[in-house]
Amino acid sequence: MNTNDTKLPLDGVRVIEFTHMVMGPTCGMILADLGAEVIKIEPPGGDKTRTLPGLGIGFFRSFNRNKKSVVLDITTPEGRDAAVELIGTCDVMLENFRPGLMTKLGLDHDTLSQQYPGLIYVSHKGFLPGPYEKRLALDEVVQMMGGLSYMTGPVGRPLRAGTSVNDIMGGMFGAIGVLAALRERERTGRGQEVQSALFENCVFLSSQHMQQYAMTKEPPPPMPARVSAWSVYDVFTLAGGEQLFIGAVSDKQFITLCDVLHRPDLPAEPRFANNALRVAVRPELLDVLGAILKDHRADELAPKLEAAGIPYAPIVRPEQLLDDPHLKASGGLVPMETDDGSMTEVVLLPLTMGGRRPGVRQALAKVGEHTQEVLSRLKSRIAA
C-alpha cells in the first residue's frame, strides 16, 4: 500500500448489513475499517444489541464502528421495497438472522441474485449446509459441540472460552469471503453467496487436536490435564500472591532461567540435565521452582526475564488492558465518540497496512442517524 495514498483498500465498496449481536457486525466492522461504506439496517427503535446488559453491554460499541445507521422496518412491504432498492446500490450484503427469516422476507440470496447478479451475499450461520443447518446456535453451543470446551476445562468440567471466539472468528471468515468474492467478480462479473458458520469455525480451532488423535490414536486430554512437551511451562505464584506465566522451552532457556533465579546448580543435577528428563519429573521440578519463585516480586523478576529472553507473561485482566502501554504506543487503542456523545477507548484491527493501523473515521452512529441521507438518494426517495 502506498502510505501517501489516503484512500483505504476498500474505498468505493458499498456494503449493506442486516445483522445484530457479534458475528455479522464483526464482518461489517472489518470491511468498514478497511474503507468500505457500510450501511447498517436497524429496526424501528434500533438494534437490540445496543441495550444488552451484563456481559453483552460492550458488544455494540466493540463491533459497529465506522458504519452508517439506517432505520427500516423490513417486515412491512414499504420497508422491504426500500431495502431491496437499497441492496441494488450495494456490492455486498451481510446478514446473520435465524435460518429461514430472510427467505420469508424475500431477502434471501436466491431471490436477490435474480435481480442483482453482481451482488455478493454473505450469510453468517450456526452451521454450514448439512444435517445441523436448521439448528439455532450460540457461541456456547458450538464450543461444546466443536471440542473447544472439552479441551479448555479440567477433566469432567467442560469450560467455554471467556470471549466470543467463534462469533468473532465467523465475522473474520465472512470478511475473507467478501474479499475473495470481490476479486472473483472482477474476473467473472458475477456475485455469489458466501457462508460462514460458528460450528465449522470451532471445529477449525480444534483441528490440531483432531490430527493429534489421527496420528497417535490416543484421545488428546483437556489442556489442564495435558502432558506438556516442556518441563517449565506454567503459571507460578510469586510474592504477594501475584501470578506469572513462565516458559522455558529449551535446555538453553532452562539454564538461563536458573541463572536469573540464582540457582545455577539446578541444571547440573542429573534429573534436570535435559528437557526429556525434566518432563519425566515435571511435578517435582515445578515444586522446586515454585518454592523459589514464591519469594520473588513480579515487578522485579519480569524485567530480568525479558532481558534474558525468557518467555513470560503476567495474568492480565481485560480492564487492565485499557492502560496497556504497548497497545497505546502501537496505536491499537484509540478514542471513539459513542452514540451518546461520550468518549471511549476501542481496540483496532490487529494489523498494519503500509505502516498504518486502519482506525476510527467517524463517531459511533446514533439509531437512524443516516436514514434520510441514504434513503433520499434512492429513485423512489423513500423517507423513514
TrEMBL record:
Listed InterPro entries: CoA-transferase_III_domain, CoA-Trfase_fam_III, CoA-Trfase_III_dom3_sf, CoA-Trfase_III_dom_1_sf
Domain of life: Bacteria
Signal peptide, first to last residue: none
SUPFAM superfamilies referenced in this protein's UniProt entry, alphabetically: CoA-transferase family III (CaiB/BaiF) (SSF89796)
One GO molecular-function entry: CoA-transferase activity
Pfam families the record matches: CoA_transf_3
Keywords, in A-Z order: Transferase
Transmembrane stretches, start-end: none
Protein name listed in UniProt: L-carnitine dehydratase/bile acid-inducible protein F
